[in-house]
TrEMBL record:
Gene3D superfamilies: Metalloproteases ('zincins'), catalytic domain (3.30.2010.10). Pfam families: Peptidase_M48. Belongs to the peptidase M48 family. This is Peptidase family M48. The lineage of its organism: Bacteria, Pseudomonadati, Pseudomonadota, Betaproteobacteria, Burkholderiales. Binds 1 zinc ion per subunit. Its cofactor is Zn(2+). It comes from Paraburkholderia tuberum. GO terms for biological process: proteolysis.
Length: 252
């Protein structure tokens, strides 16, 4: 048993090192992509051949990516500064009230209270994930601001002993401080995705203009919530924040 424990510990260290390497590689790839885009833009319309090696542009791309990733990561971590409650709100889970009359939810609350008493930590707020799979998580910076959430599938399909095992596993994350690392990882992943999020914003609005063109051709009806491109948008390529659905009328 001891050998298995140390083997698992070594495996966890290797996986952590791999994650760090992947993160560094992701940053380097982002820098390379931004640098390549800058060089390609400088080549466009140039009267003389432009070399792919541009140290000045590399010195511009590297700090820009670093500032963007670092700033976006810091922003996301700051948004989650309130601990587990912020993560729960982000995932749109529903809290289980102490006055619930649902037998399965009551069983969950009892199990969480038992585990908190056994671990010597405050009883955390309990949430339910609206999904049918077997899943659970604990989130927060410390036991005092932690939350525990399980999926609806856990309530529907697990016995009390099985549910107790799942909750006990989540309490191990609370006691070992894994939750702090997970929140920081959320911030880092958001930082890496920041460029993609920024890039999708104008393209999604361009798709709305294409939807309007298709709707006019096919005689569809566009709901009032979907923004209509103005004459200025069509003339200058300006974009409007967009959201909405396309509804097809039945052909007469």
């Amino acid at each position: 048993m001891a050998t298995n424990f140390f083997q698992q510990q070594d495996s966890a260290r290797r996986k952590t090192f791999q994650l760090v390497v992947y993160f560094v590689l992701a940053i380097l790839i982002l820098i390379a992509l931004v640098y390549g885009l800058l060089v390609a833009l400088s080549m466009y319309g140039a009267h003389e051949p432009v070399s792919w090696w541009q140290p000045d542009m590399l010195l511009l791309a590297a700090p820009a990516v670093g500032i963007l990733v670092g700033g976006a990561s810091a922003l996301k971590v700051a948004q989650l500064a309130s601990g587990g409650q912020a993560v729960a709100l982000m995932l749109a889970v529903r809290r289980v009230p102490g006055t619930t009359t649902d037998a399965r939810q009551k069983r969950l609350l009892n199990v969480v209270e038992e585990m908190a008493l056994a671990a010597g930590v405050p009883v955390p707020p309990v949430y339910v994930l609206p999904e049918t799979g077997i899943n659970a998580f604990a989130a927060g910076y410390a036991p005092g601001d932690a939350v525990v959430a399980v999926s609806q599938g856990c309530l529907d399909y697990l016995t009390r002993d099985e549910l107790q095992g799942v909750v006990a596993h989540e309490f191990s994350h609370i006691l070992n401080g894994d939750m702090r690392l997970n929140i920081r990882l959320i911030g880092l992943i958001f930082g890496i995705m920041a460029l993609s999020i920024i890039g999708r914003s104008p393209s999604s609005c361009r798709s709305v203009r294409r939807v309007h063109c298709t709707a006019r051709r096919k005689n569809w009806r566009v709901p009032a919530g979907l923004p209509t491109p103005t004459a200025r948008d069509r003339r200058t390529g300006g974009y409007t924040p967009c959201s909405g659905f396309l509804i097809a009328d039945d052909p007469a």
